[in-house]
Amino acid sequence: MPITEVAKIWMDGELVDWQDAQVHILTPTLHYGWGVFEGIRAYETPRGPAVFQHRSHMERLHRSARILQMEVPYAVDELMQATRELIRINDVPSCYIRPLVYLGYGEMGLNPLPSRVRVSIAVWPWGTYLGEEGLANGVRAKISSWQRIGSNMIPTGCKAAGVYINSSLAKVEAIKAGYDEAVLLNEHGRVAEGSGENLFVVKEGVLKTPPLSEGVLQGVTRDSIFAFARDLDIPLVETPLLRQDLYLADEAFYTGTAAEVVPIRSVDDREIGPPGPITKQLQDLFFAVVAGKEPRFDAMIDYVQS
Ligand SMILES: Cc1ncc(COP(=O)(O)O)c(C=O)c1O
Which terminus has fewer CB within 10 Å in the chain: N or C? Predict the structure, then answer.
C-alpha cells in the first residue's frame, strides 16, 4: 500500500521534515531486524481524532523492547504525548501510527547490546487494509505452508521487526495463490493467527480464539474483542483450535489494527458463508467505539485535542 506523505516525523524527541527522516545504511536494524514496532490507528470522532487503545499499544511496545533487552529512552506517557502532538501538527483527521524502536548507527555485529536505542514515530492517512469489500462481505483465507514462529525461536509476544519475514512469506504465498489472507499454524500444527491478525471462530454461539500459549501475538484488538464480547453477553473461550475447527466454524473473523474486524468468508475454499450475526455485532460495536460513538467505551480512545 502506498504511503501518503505528511509534514513531520518524530525522531528521538525532534519533529523532523518528512523527507529528512533518514537513517544511515549501516543502521544495524536494517541488517538483522533487531527492533520492535507498533501499529496503531487514530480515528475521526465528533471531538477530532482519537487514538484507539493508545496506552495498550505503547505498553506493548515497551514489553516487546524489554524482551529484546532494548531500553526505550521514553516512557509510555512521553510516547503518547509525542504521538498526540504529531497528529495535531500533521493535521490528519484519521491515520495509521507507526512507532519504531531500533538500533542506531555506530556499532555492527550480532550483539545488539552496545548499540544506542533510537525511537521514531510516523503517522500517515491509511485506508482499510483488506479492502472495503472484505470488511463488508468477508475475505478468503488459506492455510499457509509457512509455520508461525515458535516462542523458543523468537518470543511470540514480541512485535519484533525481523519476525515479519515469517508473516510476509505467508502473506505473499496467500496472495499469489489468489487468496486475501493467510492462516498460520503453529509448530504443533494447531491454528495460530493470520499474517498480521488474530483469529476468532464462532461455533454454536460460542466465540473461540487460541490462547497466547499457542504462540499468537497478544493483539490489542483481540483484547478489545474480549471486552466487547463481555458487554454483549457473548460467551468466549480461549482454546486451542484445529484446522478442521475453521472448516466447521459457523462464523470466523480476523482482528488487528490494520485489518480491523474482518469476516472470513472461506478457508481453503471451504465456505463459511457471509458475515454471521456475532461477527457483525462485534464489528459494529468496534467501529462505533473507535468513532467515539459508544461513551461506555470512551476509556479505549485517547482524544488528540485535550
Ligand atoms: C502477527 C500479528 N498478530 C496479530 C496482530 C493483531 O494485533 P493488534 O490487534 O494489536 O493490531 C498483529 C498486528 O499487530 C500481528 O502483526
Answer: C
Q: Does residue 76 register a pLDDT over 80?
A: yes
How are beta strands 260-267 and 14-17 bridged, if at all? Answer: unpaired
Residue 131: alpha-carbon gap to chain centroid: 16
Q: Over the stretch 100-153, which tens digit does the pLDDT of each residue have?
A: 999 999 999 999 999 999 999 999 999 888 889 999 999 999 999 999 999 999
Q: Residue 158 has what pLDDT?
A: 98
Cell digits for 183?
A: 492462516
For residue 216, the CA-to-ligand 1 centroid distance in Å is 9
pTM over 0.90: yes
Q: Which long-range contacts (CB under 8 A, 24 or more apart) does 11-16 make?
A: 11/118, 11/119, 11/120, 12/73, 12/118, 12/119, 12/120, 13/74, 13/82, 15/85, 15/86, 15/89
131 CA distance to ligand 1 middle (Å): 17
Grid coordinates representing 37 are 514496532
Determine the average pLDDT of the residues in 143-167: 97
Coil vs helix vs strand at 126? coil
Q: Is the CB of 217 under 6 A from ligand 1?
A: yes
